[in-house]
Protein 1
Amino acid sequence: MMQGKFITIEGSEGAGKSTNMCFVQDFLSSKNIEFISTREPGGTEISEKIRDLLLDKSNSSLCDDAELLLMFAARAQHLNELIKPTLAAGKWVISDRFTDASYAYQGGGRGLSWEKITQLEQWVQGSLRPDATILLDIPVDIGMQRVRERGEADRFEQEQLSFFNRIRDAYLRLAKENPKRFHIVDTQPAIEDVHKQMRTVMEMITDSVTL
Ligand SMILES: Nc1ncnc2c1ncn2[C@@H]1O[C@H](COP(=O)(O)OP(=O)(O)O)[C@@H](O)[C@H]1O
Ligand SMILES: [Mg+2]
């Protein structure tokens, strides 16, 4: 059986990942492509428990290395329990965040070396990488404004503007280094315009992998 495709959606806080996940789901359904959608950190019962630890504001003393290692612990479980078996069964996997988020948040945001992250990526994933990544890009102040309107902030969302600027820069750097895998969507405009961009990107992704 043909392997399913692995698509990830990335972007900093308020970029529109959850909002555009719905668009991707509708698009794939309209093409009769079987898929599951999931998220990181999380996606399985154990990984969601690790997510709770990571997002809990009361864990303010969590050190940067522990944060990175917990992200990859959750990812190892997610890959083995859900992502790999699903792809092997021929279904697509759409994930709200994956390893690019570790480079952006723990690398760019926290300042951990990319070398450390690369080692963990190699250990936990072997050669597995997303087939395509949609990077939702938005100026940090507008994203944060949208997050504030959405409700209460978690352990990451309460960080300073400079933290999120480093994250955005790291994401854009990743996109530049992986131009074949990355598709950038500007989510600053109104949702109708964003959907137009999303449609173009999803047509490209499905055309390139299903032919
Ligand atoms: N293009 C858009 N224009 C205006 N508001 C948007 C747009 N896209 C998303 N939003 C709103 O911004 C907020 C953050 O979006 P969300 O999808 O939750 O972001 P993320 O999951 O990336 O943090 C939500 O309240 C959402 O309704
Ligand atoms: Mg979200």
Protein 2
Amino acid sequence: MRDVGRTGTRTVAVIGAGLVGLACARALQRTGHVVTLIDPEDPGSGASAGNAGLIAGSAVVPEASRETLLALPRLLLSNDSPVSLRITHFPRLVPFLWHFAKACRTSRFDELSRAMAQLSLNGFDRWMALLDDLPEARALFRRDGCLYLYLSEDEHLNAKKDNDVRRARGMPLTELSDADVRALLPDIGVTTAGGILAQSAGHVVEPRALGDLLFRHFVADGGRFQQRKIARLERVDHRVPAVHTTDGDQIAANVFVLAAGAYSRPLAAQVEARVPLATQRGYHVMVRDPDVSVPMPLLVPGAGLAVTPMRNGLRFAGLVEFDRLDAAPNPARTRQIKQCAVHLFPRLAVDNAETWMGCRPSLPDGVPIIDRAPGAANVFLAFGHGQMGLTQAAITGEAIAAIVEGDAPPVDLSPYRVTRFGRSENLHHAA
Ligand SMILES: Cc1cc2nc3c(=O)[nH]c(=O)nc-3n(C[C@H](O)[C@H](O)[C@H](O)COP(=O)(O)OP(=O)(O)OC[C@H]3O[C@@H](n4cnc5c(N)ncnc54)[C@H](O)[C@@H]3O)c2cc1C
């Protein structure tokens, strides 16, 4: 570790200790700053704990597209769809949907795909670089590829365009027949329409352990932790000298990084960053000691699920549910995942499987905000990673450390500017 940053040692407070906040904190600490992490919960216990674990290099296909927009009414109305919406939540979603519709313009597709690729294609390597002094954490990563499973000919045919985009971005993909799929997955109980193997994809065998290890080493190297919730950012002359906790205390620092995931919107608004951040809630079902062989992660696009072999079991994770951040988990979603699990692998016993729900921090165009706050020169924003926060956390940390230092960031950050959503004052109803 360097002793001091290029601009001298500064005190930095990172609000939110999910994987994005932890990666920012670690990168800033390695740059030589004195860093405090602030979170009311245990570090790494939010969306970052229960995700599918994929370091999804193949995430270069924007969700916002003409095809998704046309399919959305059907997806939202059908019972067994991977996408659902609580109808009473609709008014709060209007700003998100408005910007989503704008992002679906054909002219934006290539631009958004490039913006995703910049952060995703090197996701694995950027993690390895951030963890170069933590072999224990590196040992949680695998690079076994990822198998896209198509359950019907239509699905496989419809995926052709997405797979052409992946190939155009330089990803090696191998077409597999149903017989090839069966050779890899001897316990599969359905006839597939074949699959695609994305060789360069990786995964983490226990995302929660990654958060724990990052946090433990952050503290061992002098990092501080305040188990508090931030209620307010105080602003004086275009700067934030301190943030206020919900229990009436203040935490002062030279620099602040806002990385509170799906909960960032009200805090961001206090530094003139009004953003249509919503949450797409997702679920997982974790089967301990599964009696089936799954040698690599699977993606089942038709079901909206990933199936990931983890250190402590087989995890079925995914679905998109538009609802309030604080609404109780919906048991119908975990039933839906269990049904799909048994459909794919009839031998699986899912009755006693663990279930989990978490809130993705979602922006309408599917790329995060990595930027300086418009209303405070010493506040930096790192949130909105949606479906890709595990993949993109390390490079986000690297980028934030660079812009705090005044150094050139590892990639062009213009696609992640907060101002891309305009300065609309009408966004305060977003979820
Ligand atoms: C089912 C599912 C599957 C997924 N699969 C993948 C995958 O395979 N690959 C991938 O790359 N991504 C995946 N994701 C997405 C990924 O998990 C998220 O993008 C990522 O975890 C977001 O990290 P974060 O640090 O921004 O948010 P979080 O992990 O949610 O952390 C935010 C933190 O901020 C804290 N906080 C909130 N409010 C305050 C406040 N006022 N003051 C202080 N702290 C506060 C919270 O307590 C929390 O700890 C998946 C997500 C889900 C739900």
